[in-house]
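Quiz preparation item.
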């Protein structure tokens, strides 16, 4: 897929600047940016195009209007008057796929810029991003318990990964809302900013990341993701192999013979560098 395929759709706005910073805006403000069936397929296609793009260096994900995202548009996902059963079943799979896999595994760094509100299924979007900034006044809520439900789909796993365990239990069992500062202290948000500073600080970070080596950024993401489930010996071996691959990719294929020679001469040790 080419950068030409990274374009705005009915429910998603995109803006790619000259620095390589792509801003993705969930654009259903009249529905609090809740994710409906059509949006779900649009996001899947967009993220596939972003993953294949060399021009996109950093991704910012935000919501249009008054807030970030109110979660799933449950009414649309069960509306058999508008969708057939096969389409709804496929949409539910894709809704999980783009949050659990596609967004998380983008080679580019991703920053969630959360303002206004973040509810339910939107927690999985924020957790899948590498870095999450929010405004102090942002309202977060896991209100499923108040309706006799629970954080379903990828949300429970997202909470377990990003939140301190006590905080995850407290907010999901009580259904009590919390603000940006509380989200930061829970571990769910990287940093909460005063409302007027959120956008500027997000852009500042994106501009900082753009200046770094893109392959090193990608490998940092991959390493952090994969070593979580590894034993120490496996993690050390994995990162030694990734280090050697990194240097080859950064210098080009012609550097492989030199790297091997340096290793044999004792000038290079995988995992330690020169």
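Solution:
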């Amino acid at each position: 897929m080419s950068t030409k395929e990274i374009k705005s759709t009915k429910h998603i706005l995109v803006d790619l600047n000259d620095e390589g910073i792509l801003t993705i805006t969930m654009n259903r403000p009249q529905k609090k940016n809740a994710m409906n069936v059509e949006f779900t397929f649009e996001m899947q296609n967009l993220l596939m195009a972003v993953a294949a793009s060399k021009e996109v260096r950093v991704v910012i994900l935000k919501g249009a209007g008054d807030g970030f995202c109110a979660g799933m548009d449950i009414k649309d996902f069960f509306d058999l008057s508008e969708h057939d059963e096969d389409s709804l079943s496929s949409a539910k799979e894709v809704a999980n796929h783009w949050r659990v896999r596609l967004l998380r595994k983008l080679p580019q760094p991703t920053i969630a810029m959360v303002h206004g509100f973040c509810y339910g299924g939107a927690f999985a979007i924020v957790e899948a991003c590498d870095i999450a900034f929010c405004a102090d006044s942002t309202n977060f809520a896991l209100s499923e318990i108040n309706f006799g439900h629970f954080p379903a789909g990828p949300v429970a796993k997202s909470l377990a990964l990003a939140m301190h365990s006590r905080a995850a239990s407290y907010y999901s069992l009580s259904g009590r809302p919390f603000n940006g500062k509380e989200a930061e202290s829970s571990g769910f948000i990287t940093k909460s900013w005063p409302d007027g500073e959120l956008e500027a600080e997000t852009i500042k970070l994106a501009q900082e990341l753009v200046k770094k080596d893109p392959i090193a950024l990608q490998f940092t993401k991959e390493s952090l993701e994969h070593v979580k489930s590894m034993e120490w010996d496996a993690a050390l071996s994995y990162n030694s192999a990734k280090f050697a691959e990194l240097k080859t990719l950064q210098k080009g294929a012609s550097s492989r013979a030199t790297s091997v020679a340096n290793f044999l001469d004792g000038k290079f040790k995988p995992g330690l560098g020169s």
